[in-house]
């Protein structure tokens, strides 16, 4: 079955750059998206199609891909960025998959 | 504004049934595919089901196939999830999400706030 693997946690100090990775064997052939979820809230789309940013999402959020890994980069991390982040992709057979999620801690 | 509002959650015993609803507003509901995604307490997101804009195709996660049915009523701008033979492991917050598109790529761009389902054993 299709799987996406994320590190459980990432820590960064305010103002620094955070990078959250997502690994999947099918990622060279499939695009992926990123979502942010704060405690008690619904997920919010941050990045779609590997690197496209919806309107209203701050420019400090960016996405990139290389082979089997996609990366969410948060430049100039702010305290409000502390949240869980999920990657998500779909295979060609009609199955959507989420990564296990990464908890970003702002020190 | 674009909005999705889930309802129908509650407490049900193992083996019971529940129907969730997702009321859509602020956009042309009949032009969009829709998803259900759930999140067990303290766990990550799990995709549950998808229905195409015209209900022509429906897809399910292995964990719910044969027990859950996704449907839609475009006249009521409402998405449904009929859940039968419920198990304790189905306990979760259930979100509906809109399937939007960019070029030939589809993604979940708008989410509701969720409704909570608890299955007691």
Shape descriptor of chain A:
globular
Residue share in helix of chain B? under 10%
Strand content of chain A: 35-45%
Largest sheet of chain B: 7 strands, mixed
Distance between the termini of chain B: 40 Å
H/E topology pattern of chain A: EEEEEEEEE
What's the count of strands of chain B? 11
N-end to C-end Cα span of chain A: 36 Å
SS elements, strand count of chain A: 9
Contiguous low-pLDDT stretches of chain A (5 residues minimum) are none
Computed Rg of chain B? 14 Å
* Class based on secondary structure composition and strand pairing of chain B: mainly beta
Low-confidence stretches of chain B: none
**Which range does the strand content of chain B fall in?**
over 45%
Structural class of chain A: mainly beta
Radius of gyration of chain A: 13 Å
Largest interface: A-B, 26 and 23 residues
Number of helices of chain A: 0
The largest sheet of chain A, given as strand count, sense and whether it forms a barrel, is: 6 strands, mixed
Write the layout of secondary structure elements.
The complex is a heterodimer of chains A (107) and B (121).
Chain A: E1 9-12, E2 18-23, E3 32-37, E4 44-47, E5 61-66, E6 69-74, E7 83-90, E8 96-98, E9 102-106
Chain B: E1 3-7, E2 10-13, E3 18-25, E4 33-39, E5 45-51, E6 58-60, E7 68-73, E8 78-83, E9 92-102, E10 105-111, E11 115-120
Parallel strand pairs in B: 2-11
Antiparallel strand pairs in B: 1-3, 3-8, 4-5, 4-9, 5-6, 7-8, 9-10, 9-11
Describe it.
With 107 residues, chain A is mainly beta. Chain A contains no helices and nine strands. In chain A, a hairpin with a 5-residue loop joins β7 (83-90) and β8 (96-98). Chain A starts with 8 loop residues before the first strand and ends with a strand. The mean pLDDT of chain A is 95. Chain B is 0% helix and 58% strand. In chain B, β4 (33-39) and β5 (45-51) form a beta hairpin. In chain B, the strands form two sheets. In chain B, strands 2, 4, 5, 6, 9, 10 and 11 form a seven-stranded mixed β-sheet that branches. In chain B, strands 1-3-8-7 form a four-stranded antiparallel β-sheet, with no helix packed on it. Chain B has strands spanning 3-7, 10-13, 18-25, 33-39, 45-51, 58-60, 68-73, 78-83, 92-102, 105-111, 115-120. With 121 residues, chain B is an all-beta fold. The model of chain B has no long low-confidence stretch (mean pLDDT 96). The A-B interface holds A 1, 31, 33, 35, 37, 41-45, 48-49, 52, 54, 84, 86, 88, 90, 94-101 and B 35, 37, 44-47, 50, 57, 59, 61-62, 95, 102, 105-114.
């Amino acid at each position: 079955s299709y799987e996406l693997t994320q590190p459980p946690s990432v820590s960064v100090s305010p103002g620094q750059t955070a990078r959250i990775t997502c690994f999947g064997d099918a990622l060279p052939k499939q695009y992926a998206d990123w979502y942010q979820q704060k405690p008690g809230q619904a997920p919010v789309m941050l990045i779609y199609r590997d690197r496209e940013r919806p309107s209203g999402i701050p420019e400090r959020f960016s996405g990139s891909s290389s082979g089997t890994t996609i990366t969410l980069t948060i430049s100039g991390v702010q305290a409000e960025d502390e949240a869980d982040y999920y990657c998500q992709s779909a295979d060609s057979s009609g199955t959507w998959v989420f990564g296990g999620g990464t908890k970003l801690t702002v020190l | 504004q674009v909005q999705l509002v889930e309802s129908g959650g509650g407490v049900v015993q193992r083996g019971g049934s529940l129907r969730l609803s997702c009321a859509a507003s602020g956009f042309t509901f009949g032009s969009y595919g829709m998803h259900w995604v759930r999140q067990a307490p303290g766990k990550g997101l799990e995709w549950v089901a998808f229905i195409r804009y015209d209900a022509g195709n429906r897809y399910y996660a292995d964990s719910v196939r044969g027990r859950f049915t996704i449907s839609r009523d475009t006249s009521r701008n409402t998405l449904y999830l009929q859940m039968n033979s419920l198990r304790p492991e189905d306990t979760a917050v259930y979100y509906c999400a809109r399937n939007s598109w960019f070029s030939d790529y589809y993604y979940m761009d708008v989410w509701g706030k969720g409704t909570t389902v608890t299955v007691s054993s």
